[in-house]
From TrEMBL:
Pfam families: TctB. This is DUF1468 domain-containing protein. The chain crosses the membrane at residues 54-72, 93-119, 131-155. It comes from Rhodococcus oxybenzonivorans. Keywords: Membrane, Plasmid, Transmembrane, Transmembrane helix. Residues 25-154 form the DUF1468 domain.
Length: 162
């Protein structure tokens, strides 16, 4: 098992490939620790009235347990990851960051639509299916969360009644 990052050229397809057996557990551990700290900072509440950090803390602990298991047992089978796959993951993360930044500025519909379009295209869906699904997805989010559940999303310039 190697602890170093290996980038090699594939002779057949001339594509770059990344292989590492310890990178994933290290990244998971760092994310788990940061999420745990932020969860506690949000407040845990108690058993009868959980605070806003209770569920994120449970998720964070799950991530930490998983990363510890990966460190202890090692990653027996490490699949090679194409650089293009890493670019897709970076694009997906950037689209979520876009959603988080834009939500308070323009409301929910626009960032949700962009997020759905980016993700559906990353999964290889056609433009027609992507646009129909993203549109229906935004409508469904609005109906379920705003109308039925009363979730107070930030109101942007495209909100009804503005």
């Amino acid at each position: 098992m190697s602890n170093t990052l290996v980038v090699e050229e594939s002779a057949e397809k001339n594509e770059r490939v990344v292989e590492n057996r310890r990178l994933t557990p290290a990244v998971l551990t760092a994310l788990g620790v940061l999420a745990t700290i932020e969860s506690v900072r949000l407040g845990l509440g108690d058993l009868t009235e959980p605070g806003p950090g209770a569920w994120p803390l449970l998720t964070s602990v799950g991530v930490l347990v998983t990363s510890a298991w990966l460190f202890i047992t090692g990653v027996e089978r490490c699949e090679k990851v194409m650089i293009s796959d890493l670019a897709r993951v970076a694009t997906a993360i950037a689209s979520v960051a876009f959603f988080v930044v834009m939500l308070p500025l323009v409301g929910m519909p626009v960032p949700a639509f962009v997020l759905l379009v980016v993700w559906l295209r990353l999964f290889g869906e056609s433009w027609r299916l992507t646009l129909v699904t993203a549109t229906l997805g935004v409508v469904a989010l609005q109906i379920v969360f705003v109308e039925l559940l009363g979730v107070p999303f930030p109101i942007g310039p495209l909100a009804p009644g503005r």
